Amino acid sequence: MCLVLICCLASCREQEKTIIYSEPAIIDTFDQELVVIENIDLALKVDSLFNEALKELQISGAAVSILDGNTAVLQKTYGYSDARSKVPLTTKSVFRIGSVSKSITGVLSGILFQQGKINFDEQVSQVDPDFSFYNSNYTKDVKLSHLLSHTSGLPYHSYTNLVEYGLPLHKIVCRFSEIMNLESPGNVYSYQNAAFAESGAVLSQKLHMPIQNIYKTFLFGPLGMKSASTSYADLKDSDNFAKPHKKIAGIWIPQSVNKKYYNAIPAGGVNASIEDMSKIMRLLLGNFPTMLADSTISILTTPTIDTKVRYRYYKKWENFDKSYYGYGWRIHTFKDPTTGVSDTLIHHGGQVNNYRSEIAIDRKNGIAICVLFNSYTPLANTVIPKLLEIVKAIHK
Predict the structure, then answer these.
(1) Angstrom distance (rounded) from CA 41 to CA 28
(2) Backbone phi and psi for residue 17, each to the nearest 5 degrees, phi listed first
(3) What positions does the domain Beta-lactamase-related occupy (predicted)?
Protein backbone atom coordinates (compact mmCIF):
# COMPACT_ATOMS: atom_id res chain seq x y z
CA MET A 1 0.00 0.00 0.00
CA CYS A 2 2.85 2.39 0.87
CA LEU A 3 4.47 1.69 -2.51
CA VAL A 4 1.26 2.55 -4.33
CA LEU A 5 0.98 5.80 -2.42
CA ILE A 6 4.56 6.74 -3.25
CA CYS A 7 4.00 5.99 -6.93
CA CYS A 8 0.82 8.02 -6.99
CA LEU A 9 2.46 10.97 -5.29
CA ALA A 10 5.33 10.84 -7.72
CA SER A 11 2.88 11.32 -10.59
CA CYS A 12 2.34 14.94 -9.53
CA ARG A 13 4.70 17.66 -10.60
CA GLU A 14 7.92 17.49 -8.61
CA GLN A 15 8.64 21.17 -8.19
CA GLU A 16 6.47 24.13 -7.44
CA LYS A 17 6.53 26.71 -10.20
CA THR A 18 8.73 29.77 -9.70
CA ILE A 19 6.83 32.93 -8.89
CA ILE A 20 8.48 36.34 -8.96
CA TYR A 21 7.13 37.96 -5.82
CA SER A 22 6.71 41.68 -5.41
CA GLU A 23 7.57 43.61 -2.28
CA PRO A 24 4.80 43.92 0.34
CA ALA A 25 2.61 46.96 -0.08
CA ILE A 26 2.49 49.66 2.58
CA ILE A 27 -1.05 50.07 3.84
CA ASP A 28 -2.76 51.86 6.70
CA THR A 29 -2.57 50.48 10.23
CA PHE A 30 -5.65 50.03 12.38
CA ASP A 31 -3.85 48.93 15.52
CA GLN A 32 -5.95 50.79 18.08
CA GLU A 33 -5.73 49.64 21.67
CA LEU A 34 -8.65 47.46 22.74
CA VAL A 35 -10.51 48.95 25.68
CA VAL A 36 -11.18 46.32 28.35
CA ILE A 37 -13.92 47.24 30.81
CA GLU A 38 -14.73 44.04 32.63
CA ASN A 39 -18.36 43.53 33.55
CA ILE A 40 -18.19 42.15 37.08
CA ASP A 41 -21.50 40.25 36.93
CA LEU A 42 -20.50 38.71 33.61
CA ALA A 43 -17.02 37.82 34.88
CA LEU A 44 -18.40 36.02 37.93
CA LYS A 45 -20.67 33.84 35.80
CA VAL A 46 -17.99 33.09 33.21
CA ASP A 47 -15.46 32.36 35.96
CA SER A 48 -17.90 29.88 37.46
CA LEU A 49 -18.32 28.08 34.11
CA PHE A 50 -14.60 27.71 33.38
CA ASN A 51 -13.42 27.10 36.93
CA GLU A 52 -15.93 24.26 37.21
CA ALA A 53 -14.62 22.86 33.91
CA LEU A 54 -11.08 22.98 35.29
CA LYS A 55 -12.15 21.31 38.52
CA GLU A 56 -13.89 18.50 36.62
CA LEU A 57 -10.87 18.10 34.29
CA GLN A 58 -12.96 18.98 31.25
CA ILE A 59 -10.24 21.38 30.08
CA SER A 60 -6.53 21.93 30.61
CA GLY A 61 -6.83 25.60 29.81
CA ALA A 62 -8.88 28.18 27.93
CA ALA A 63 -8.63 31.77 26.72
CA VAL A 64 -11.88 33.74 26.45
CA SER A 65 -12.84 37.06 24.92
CA ILE A 66 -16.30 38.62 24.89
CA LEU A 67 -16.87 41.91 23.06
CA ASP A 68 -19.79 44.29 23.34
CA GLY A 69 -19.43 46.71 20.45
CA ASN A 70 -15.86 48.02 20.51
CA THR A 71 -15.23 47.11 24.15
CA ALA A 72 -14.05 43.86 25.70
CA VAL A 73 -16.35 43.15 28.62
CA LEU A 74 -14.24 40.10 29.40
CA GLN A 75 -10.82 38.98 28.21
CA LYS A 76 -9.05 36.45 30.40
CA THR A 77 -7.60 32.97 30.67
CA TYR A 78 -8.17 29.90 32.79
CA GLY A 79 -5.80 27.03 33.50
CA TYR A 80 -2.41 26.27 32.13
CA SER A 81 -0.18 26.71 29.15
CA ASP A 82 1.73 23.73 30.53
CA ALA A 83 -0.20 21.69 33.09
CA ARG A 84 2.86 19.65 34.07
CA SER A 85 4.96 22.64 35.12
CA LYS A 86 1.93 24.76 36.13
CA VAL A 87 2.72 27.58 33.71
CA PRO A 88 -0.45 29.69 33.51
CA LEU A 89 -2.02 30.88 30.29
CA THR A 90 -2.04 34.61 29.51
CA THR A 91 -4.09 36.61 27.02
CA LYS A 92 -0.96 36.71 24.83
CA SER A 93 -0.50 32.91 24.79
CA VAL A 94 -0.58 31.62 21.21
CA PHE A 95 -2.89 28.74 20.21
CA ARG A 96 -3.43 26.86 16.99
CA ILE A 97 -6.95 27.72 15.83
CA GLY A 98 -7.55 24.90 13.32
CA SER A 99 -10.43 25.47 10.93
CA VAL A 100 -11.17 28.90 12.37
CA SER A 101 -8.29 29.68 9.97
CA LYS A 102 -10.94 29.44 7.24
CA SER A 103 -12.78 32.37 8.80
CA ILE A 104 -9.54 34.35 9.04
CA THR A 105 -8.96 33.60 5.35
CA GLY A 106 -12.47 34.77 4.55
CA VAL A 107 -11.73 38.06 6.33
CA LEU A 108 -8.41 38.42 4.49
CA SER A 109 -10.18 37.82 1.18
CA GLY A 110 -12.74 40.49 2.08
CA ILE A 111 -9.99 43.02 2.79
CA LEU A 112 -8.30 42.28 -0.55
CA PHE A 113 -11.65 42.46 -2.35
CA GLN A 114 -12.40 45.83 -0.75
CA GLN A 115 -9.01 47.10 -1.93
CA GLY A 116 -9.75 45.94 -5.46
CA LYS A 117 -6.91 43.41 -5.49
CA ILE A 118 -9.08 40.33 -6.06
CA ASN A 119 -12.55 39.41 -7.20
CA PHE A 120 -14.61 36.57 -5.79
CA ASP A 121 -15.48 35.62 -9.37
CA GLU A 122 -11.82 34.89 -10.18
CA GLN A 123 -11.64 31.73 -12.31
CA VAL A 124 -9.24 29.48 -10.43
CA SER A 125 -7.85 27.71 -13.51
CA GLN A 126 -6.96 31.04 -15.12
CA VAL A 127 -4.95 32.05 -12.08
CA ASP A 128 -3.48 28.59 -11.46
CA PRO A 129 -3.20 26.66 -14.77
CA ASP A 130 -2.39 23.44 -12.89
CA PHE A 131 -5.85 23.42 -11.32
CA SER A 132 -8.18 21.06 -13.17
CA PHE A 133 -11.10 18.72 -12.50
CA TYR A 134 -11.96 15.23 -13.73
CA ASN A 135 -14.83 16.77 -15.70
CA SER A 136 -12.97 19.31 -17.83
CA ASN A 137 -16.20 21.23 -18.44
CA TYR A 138 -16.31 22.07 -14.74
CA THR A 139 -12.70 23.24 -14.52
CA LYS A 140 -13.33 26.64 -16.08
CA ASP A 141 -16.40 27.17 -13.90
CA VAL A 142 -14.66 26.95 -10.52
CA LYS A 143 -14.31 30.39 -8.97
CA LEU A 144 -12.60 31.67 -5.84
CA SER A 145 -16.05 31.96 -4.28
CA HIS A 146 -16.57 28.21 -4.72
CA LEU A 147 -13.34 27.42 -2.87
CA LEU A 148 -14.27 29.74 0.01
CA SER A 149 -17.80 28.31 0.33
CA HIS A 150 -17.03 24.58 -0.10
CA THR A 151 -19.10 24.45 -3.29
CA SER A 152 -16.46 23.38 -5.82
CA GLY A 153 -18.33 20.13 -6.45
CA LEU A 154 -15.61 17.82 -5.10
CA PRO A 155 -16.56 14.93 -2.79
CA TYR A 156 -16.48 15.54 0.98
CA HIS A 157 -12.97 16.12 2.37
CA SER A 158 -11.21 15.36 -0.92
CA TYR A 159 -7.55 14.59 -0.15
CA THR A 160 -7.70 15.78 3.44
CA ASN A 161 -5.71 12.59 4.09
CA LEU A 162 -2.90 13.95 1.91
CA VAL A 163 -3.01 17.29 3.71
CA GLU A 164 -2.56 15.46 7.01
CA TYR A 165 0.15 13.29 5.42
CA GLY A 166 2.08 16.53 4.89
CA LEU A 167 2.18 16.62 1.10
CA PRO A 168 2.79 20.12 -0.33
CA LEU A 169 -0.46 21.67 -1.45
CA HIS A 170 0.55 22.07 -5.09
CA LYS A 171 1.12 18.29 -5.29
CA ILE A 172 -2.35 17.68 -3.89
CA VAL A 173 -4.16 20.16 -6.12
CA CYS A 174 -2.74 18.61 -9.27
CA ARG A 175 -4.60 15.41 -8.35
CA PHE A 176 -8.09 16.91 -8.27
CA SER A 177 -8.40 15.80 -11.91
CA GLU A 178 -8.40 12.18 -10.68
CA ILE A 179 -11.61 12.59 -8.64
CA MET A 180 -15.12 12.27 -10.04
CA ASN A 181 -17.07 15.45 -9.24
CA LEU A 182 -20.29 15.24 -7.25
CA GLU A 183 -21.92 18.06 -9.20
CA SER A 184 -21.10 21.21 -11.12
CA PRO A 185 -19.56 24.04 -9.07
CA GLY A 186 -21.97 26.03 -6.90
CA ASN A 187 -24.67 23.38 -6.56
CA VAL A 188 -23.67 21.29 -3.57
CA TYR A 189 -22.02 21.89 -0.18
CA SER A 190 -19.12 19.54 0.54
CA TYR A 191 -16.62 20.53 3.25
CA GLN A 192 -12.99 20.68 2.10
CA ASN A 193 -9.49 21.38 3.39
CA ALA A 194 -7.27 20.97 0.33
CA ALA A 195 -9.66 22.76 -2.03
CA PHE A 196 -10.25 25.55 0.49
CA ALA A 197 -6.48 25.96 0.89
CA GLU A 198 -6.19 26.44 -2.88
CA SER A 199 -7.75 29.85 -2.24
CA GLY A 200 -4.37 30.83 -0.81
CA ALA A 201 -2.67 29.87 -4.07
CA VAL A 202 -5.12 32.11 -5.92
CA LEU A 203 -4.39 35.06 -3.62
CA SER A 204 -0.65 34.42 -3.89
CA GLN A 205 -0.71 34.38 -7.70
CA LYS A 206 -2.92 37.47 -7.90
CA LEU A 207 -0.78 39.54 -5.53
CA HIS A 208 2.58 37.99 -6.52
CA MET A 209 3.39 37.36 -2.86
CA PRO A 210 3.76 34.25 -0.71
CA ILE A 211 0.53 33.61 1.15
CA GLN A 212 2.33 33.96 4.51
CA ASN A 213 3.32 37.52 3.55
CA ILE A 214 -0.22 38.33 2.47
CA TYR A 215 -1.60 37.50 5.92
CA LYS A 216 1.10 39.63 7.58
CA THR A 217 0.88 42.56 5.18
CA PHE A 218 -2.87 42.94 4.80
CA LEU A 219 -4.29 41.52 8.03
CA PHE A 220 -1.96 40.75 10.94
CA GLY A 221 0.15 43.90 10.58
CA PRO A 222 -2.57 46.49 9.96
CA LEU A 223 -4.84 45.05 12.67
CA GLY A 224 -2.02 44.80 15.21
CA MET A 225 -2.26 41.02 15.60
CA LYS A 226 1.21 40.91 17.12
CA SER A 227 1.24 37.20 18.02
CA ALA A 228 -0.49 35.83 14.92
CA SER A 229 1.48 33.70 12.48
CA THR A 230 1.15 30.95 9.88
CA SER A 231 3.92 28.44 10.44
CA TYR A 232 5.09 25.63 12.68
CA ALA A 233 8.41 27.43 13.26
CA ASP A 234 6.66 30.63 14.36
CA LEU A 235 4.65 28.72 16.95
CA LYS A 236 7.59 26.69 18.25
CA ASP A 237 9.81 29.77 18.43
CA SER A 238 7.24 31.73 20.42
CA ASP A 239 8.19 32.31 24.04
CA ASN A 240 4.53 32.12 25.06
CA PHE A 241 2.52 29.45 23.31
CA ALA A 242 -0.16 27.23 24.82
CA LYS A 243 1.03 23.66 24.68
CA PRO A 244 -1.57 21.15 23.46
CA HIS A 245 -2.74 18.66 26.10
CA LYS A 246 -4.23 15.20 26.24
CA LYS A 247 -5.91 13.63 29.27
CA ILE A 248 -4.18 10.36 30.17
CA ALA A 249 -5.23 8.39 33.26
CA GLY A 250 -7.11 11.42 34.55
CA ILE A 251 -4.16 13.80 34.21
CA TRP A 252 -3.58 16.50 31.60
CA ILE A 253 -0.30 15.74 29.82
CA PRO A 254 1.37 18.28 27.49
CA GLN A 255 1.79 17.01 23.92
CA SER A 256 4.09 17.90 21.07
CA VAL A 257 3.07 20.43 18.46
CA ASN A 258 2.85 18.80 15.03
CA LYS A 259 3.13 20.21 11.51
CA LYS A 260 -0.30 19.16 10.25
CA TYR A 261 -2.11 21.78 8.15
CA TYR A 262 0.79 24.20 7.87
CA ASN A 263 0.91 22.98 4.26
CA ALA A 264 -2.70 24.21 3.93
CA ILE A 265 -2.55 27.50 5.83
CA PRO A 266 -5.89 29.01 4.68
CA ALA A 267 -7.74 25.90 5.86
CA GLY A 268 -6.04 25.25 9.19
CA GLY A 269 -2.58 26.79 9.63
CA VAL A 270 -3.12 30.05 11.54
CA ASN A 271 -1.75 30.60 15.06
CA ALA A 272 -3.19 33.34 17.27
CA SER A 273 -3.68 34.55 20.83
CA ILE A 274 -7.00 35.57 22.32
CA GLU A 275 -5.85 39.20 22.05
CA ASP A 276 -5.35 38.64 18.31
CA MET A 277 -8.79 37.08 17.98
CA SER A 278 -10.35 40.03 19.82
CA LYS A 279 -9.06 42.26 17.04
CA ILE A 280 -10.63 40.04 14.40
CA MET A 281 -13.94 40.29 16.27
CA ARG A 282 -13.69 44.09 16.48
CA LEU A 283 -13.20 44.14 12.72
CA LEU A 284 -16.27 41.96 12.15
CA LEU A 285 -18.38 44.12 14.44
CA GLY A 286 -17.78 46.99 12.03
CA ASN A 287 -15.27 49.02 14.04
CA PHE A 288 -12.74 49.49 11.20
CA PRO A 289 -14.89 50.16 8.10
CA THR A 290 -12.04 51.53 5.98
CA MET A 291 -10.39 48.13 6.39
CA LEU A 292 -13.54 46.00 6.22
CA ALA A 293 -16.81 47.80 5.52
CA ASP A 294 -20.24 46.53 6.54
CA SER A 295 -21.03 45.92 2.87
CA THR A 296 -17.96 43.67 2.57
CA ILE A 297 -18.79 41.83 5.79
CA SER A 298 -22.25 41.21 4.35
CA ILE A 299 -20.71 39.62 1.26
CA LEU A 300 -18.62 37.28 3.42
CA THR A 301 -21.52 36.31 5.68
CA THR A 302 -24.41 36.10 3.26
CA PRO A 303 -25.62 32.48 2.97
CA THR A 304 -24.13 30.93 -0.16
CA ILE A 305 -25.25 27.34 0.30
CA ASP A 306 -27.49 25.40 2.70
CA THR A 307 -25.24 22.95 4.53
CA LYS A 308 -28.18 20.65 5.35
CA VAL A 309 -26.59 19.62 8.65
CA ARG A 310 -27.80 16.48 10.39
CA TYR A 311 -25.31 15.52 13.08
CA ARG A 312 -23.19 18.62 13.75
CA TYR A 313 -23.01 19.79 17.36
CA TYR A 314 -24.46 23.24 16.68
CA LYS A 315 -27.69 21.66 15.48
CA LYS A 316 -28.38 20.92 19.17
CA TRP A 317 -28.14 24.60 20.15
CA GLU A 318 -31.44 25.97 21.47
CA ASN A 319 -33.85 27.26 18.79
CA PHE A 320 -31.47 26.23 16.00
CA ASP A 321 -33.19 26.43 12.60
CA LYS A 322 -30.79 26.17 9.66
CA SER A 323 -27.11 26.47 8.82
CA TYR A 324 -25.51 27.90 5.71
CA TYR A 325 -21.97 28.59 4.56
CA GLY A 326 -20.68 31.92 3.27
CA TYR A 327 -17.05 32.74 2.51
CA GLY A 328 -15.13 31.08 5.33
CA TRP A 329 -18.04 31.40 7.76
CA ARG A 330 -21.00 29.35 8.88
CA ILE A 331 -24.22 31.31 9.12
CA HIS A 332 -26.74 29.88 11.58
CA THR A 333 -30.34 30.97 11.89
CA PHE A 334 -32.40 30.57 15.05
CA LYS A 335 -36.17 30.86 15.40
CA ASP A 336 -37.93 31.68 18.64
CA PRO A 337 -40.73 29.08 18.95
CA THR A 338 -42.98 31.57 20.78
CA THR A 339 -42.60 34.70 18.68
CA GLY A 340 -41.38 33.16 15.42
CA VAL A 341 -38.67 35.83 15.28
CA SER A 342 -35.46 34.73 13.56
CA ASP A 343 -31.93 35.66 14.56
CA THR A 344 -28.57 35.08 12.89
CA LEU A 345 -25.16 34.08 14.22
CA ILE A 346 -21.98 33.81 12.18
CA HIS A 347 -19.72 31.12 13.55
CA HIS A 348 -16.90 28.68 13.01
CA GLY A 349 -15.19 25.98 15.03
CA GLY A 350 -11.74 24.50 14.70
CA GLN A 351 -9.85 21.41 15.82
CA VAL A 352 -6.25 20.39 15.25
CA ASN A 353 -3.35 18.86 17.23
CA ASN A 354 -5.32 18.74 20.54
CA TYR A 355 -6.48 22.34 20.20
CA ARG A 356 -10.14 23.43 19.91
CA SER A 357 -11.45 26.86 18.98
CA GLU A 358 -14.83 28.53 18.69
CA ILE A 359 -15.75 31.99 17.42
CA ALA A 360 -19.20 33.54 17.00
CA ILE A 361 -20.44 37.00 16.04
CA ASP A 362 -23.94 38.37 16.65
CA ARG A 363 -23.76 41.48 14.50
CA LYS A 364 -27.33 42.52 15.19
CA ASN A 365 -26.68 42.85 18.92
CA GLY A 366 -23.00 43.81 18.63
CA ILE A 367 -21.76 40.78 20.58
CA ALA A 368 -18.73 38.66 19.72
CA ILE A 369 -17.27 35.65 21.52
CA CYS A 370 -14.12 33.62 21.03
CA VAL A 371 -12.85 30.72 23.11
CA LEU A 372 -9.53 28.95 22.54
CA PHE A 373 -8.80 25.62 24.25
CA ASN A 374 -5.47 23.79 24.39
CA SER A 375 -7.17 20.40 24.72
CA TYR A 376 -10.06 18.59 23.12
CA THR A 377 -13.12 18.99 25.29
CA PRO A 378 -16.89 18.43 25.03
CA LEU A 379 -17.32 21.93 26.48
CA ALA A 380 -16.32 23.33 23.06
CA ASN A 381 -19.60 22.01 21.61
CA THR A 382 -21.76 24.07 23.97
CA VAL A 383 -19.56 26.96 25.09
CA ILE A 384 -20.92 29.48 22.56
CA PRO A 385 -24.63 29.13 23.47
CA LYS A 386 -23.73 29.02 27.19
CA LEU A 387 -21.77 32.26 26.96
CA LEU A 388 -24.40 33.92 24.76
CA GLU A 389 -27.02 33.07 27.36
CA ILE A 390 -24.90 34.64 30.11
CA VAL A 391 -24.23 37.79 28.04
CA LYS A 392 -27.87 38.27 27.04
CA ALA A 393 -29.02 37.80 30.65
CA ILE A 394 -26.62 40.57 31.73
CA HIS A 395 -27.92 42.79 28.91
CA LYS A 396 -31.53 42.58 30.12
Answers:
(1) 37
(2) -65, 150
(3) 46-378
